[in-house]
Amino acid sequence: MRHLIAALGVALSVLLVSPSWAQEAGGPTVNINSAGAAEIAEVLQGVGQAKADAIVAYRTEHGAFASVESLAEVKGIGASTLANNEGRIVLE
Fold it and tell me: Between 26 and 83, where is the model more confident?
């Protein structure tokens, strides 16, 4: 019993002390206002090279995205893509 309590104490302290563990749980992020198409395609789920190229082309033509939701104005990017990538898309 004593060993079990000690083991649980060590495991809990490792989880509480490690800030990198919390960051890894969220996964990678990508700034849609500055990233290239290759990085966008690599980070966003359900976004291949063609959609990533369309995102960069849209940004070049219309300027920076004002919100994550405005990404849906790009042809081929819908609500489900945004929902699947919640937390991965950043603006700054």
Answer: 83
Residue 83 contacts residue 47 (beta carbons within 8 Å): no
Reference 40, options 87, 58, 29, 67; nearest CA is 29
Three-state DSSP at 89 gives strand
- In the predicted structure, residue 14 carries a pLDDT above the cut 60: no
User: Is residue 44 predicted with pLDDT exceeding 60?
Assistant: yes
pTM: 0.72
For residue 25, what are the CA distances in angstroms to 14, 28, 34, 60? Answer: 15, 9, 24, 32
DSSP summary character for residue 46: T
Helix (H, G, I), strand (E, B) or coil at 30: strand
Nearest by Cα to 67 from 29, 28, 30, 32? 32
CA distances from 71 to 9, 42, 87 (A): 45, 17, 14
